[in-house]
UniProtKB/TrEMBL annotation:
Active site, renumbered: D209 (nucleophile)
Name of the protein in its database record: tRNA pseudouridine synthase Pus10
Gene name of the record: pus10
Enzyme Commission numbers on file: 5.4.99.25
Species in which this protein is naturally found: Pyrococcus kukulkanii
Family per similarity comment: Belongs to the pseudouridine synthase Pus10 family.
Length: 390
């Protein structure tokens, strides 16, 4: 059946060994070129006729002979990029794709392989041999070739790095904002751009306000470096450069996958805060103890704070305070330490936000209270919520 069908095809179309063998790609072992050569030889032995491989193929137009030249073009395209793994893709003219389908339909071919699949494989094998790089389904770079126009397009896949950051000073936002010269993101990304030579995108797991420090073990974050020219980077060097800023420190930098990046950014957290609370009408030790007692284990119903309504949906969230500790400082100040679900706005938990947060410190005391200073002491990876915090 193979020989009969091959003879029928060759009587109508001049096909190279690649295109002949590809008609029967799902049968037997070896490359399509080897398969086509074998079929051609057996046909000549069986029939006594000449089925010599033509100079010009009616289907591929000799594209497989261009592979050595295309390998060199691919090498030129990637010369400025550091990578270990690759994948080859291609764009064939639609008329060639359609002609192949017509041949399959006309001769009832059910064992064929598309031309672009064979071409990608053969070009990839030749590129791997010449460069020593490895093909991969999740590669560092994707090389897309238009074999007839000889155009090469390079898709450089991002590098992802995770870590934790500590914000040691007040007065800088997490991400760039009008009126501020720098941010946590710009300080961190400056170093990543320098070492990876690519565009850096910063994403934090939650955020703190401009006037809030992030201390302790730091807040989880991910950076995505787009089109990096360097990949073999010592993350300790990046860490040292960021930490020399004196404003932001990073810890536990490590390379991660895109899936791990998503998991880090959507993971649920609890937060440990410390607030300096001001009570204009005065505060006593007994009142501090009352606040601690009534907040411990309390469920807080918090309507979106007025100060963030322009960027958050106006709805009521229920969050829990797991633990509260208080310490009287003077007759108008006390220190309040809280372990809460993520997504609980602590400043409004203290002020009450004109009744939008209940219960609140102001409601418990029966007099107005404000948060003068706030620090995030820890971001704990367990059952909480990763929304904005302070």
């Amino acid at each position: 059946m193979i020989l009969e069908k091959a003879k029928e095809v060759l009587e109508e179309y001049r096909l190279c060994n690649h295109c002949l063998g590809r008609l029967f790609a799902k049968l037997g072992k070896g490359s399509n070129e080897e398969r086509g050569r074998a079929i051609r030889l057996v046909l000549e032995m069986e029939t006594g006729l000449s089925f010599e491989e033509p100079e010009e193929c009616d289907l591929c137009e000799g594209v497989f002979r261009k592979i050595p030249k295309l390998v060199d073009l691919c090498i030129e395209a990637v010369k400025d990029y550091e990578f270990e793994t690759f994948r080859i893709g291609s764009r064939f003219p639609q008329e060639i794709i359609e002609k192949e389908r017509e041949i399959w339909a006309k001769f009832k071919i059910e064992t064929g392989e598309p031309i672009n699949r064979e071409f990608n494989r053969e070009l990839g094998k030749a590129f791997a041999v010449k460069t020593g790089k490895k093909p991969s389904v999740n590669p560092d770079v994707v090389i897309i070739v238009e074999p007839f126009s000889e155009k090469v397009e390079l898709q450089v896949n991002p590098v992802y790095v995770a870590g934790r950051y500590r914000k040691l000073v007040r007065g800088i936002p997490q991400t760039p904002a009008p009126g501020f010269k720098e941010s946590v993101a710009t300080i961190i990304c400056r170093a990543f751009r320098k070492y990876f030579n690519g565009k850096c995108v910063f994403k934090g797991a939650g955020r703190e306000d401009v006037d809030v420090r992030m201390l302790g073990g730091g807040r989880p974050f991910v950076v995505e470096i787009k089109r990096p020219r360097k990949r073999k980077v010592n993350l300790e060097d990046v860490e040292r450069e960021i930490n020399s800023s004196g404003k932001v420190e990073v810890l536990e930098l490590r390379f991660i996958t895109p899936k791990e990046a998503e998991e880090i950014l959507t993971r649920r957290h609890r937060k440990l805060y410390e607030a300096l609370v001001y009570v204009k009408d005065g505060i006593s030790r007994e009142e501090v103890e009352k606040v601690v007692r009534e907040l411990t284990g309390a469920e807080i119903r918090q309507r979106t704070p007025r100060r963030v309504l322009n960027s958050r949906a106006d709805l009521v969230r229920v969050r829990k305070v797991y633990r509260a500790e208080g310490e009287l400082i003077d007759d108008k100040h006390f220190r309040l330490r809280l372990l809460t679900d993520g997504g609980l706005y602590i400043k409004e938990l203290i002020s009450g936000d004109k009744g939008r947060t209940r219960p609140s410190v102001s409601e418990i005391l029966g007099k107005e209270a404000w948060c003068e200073l706030l620090d995030v002491l820890e971001v704990l990876e367990d059952d909480g919520n990763a929304e904005g915090d302070s």
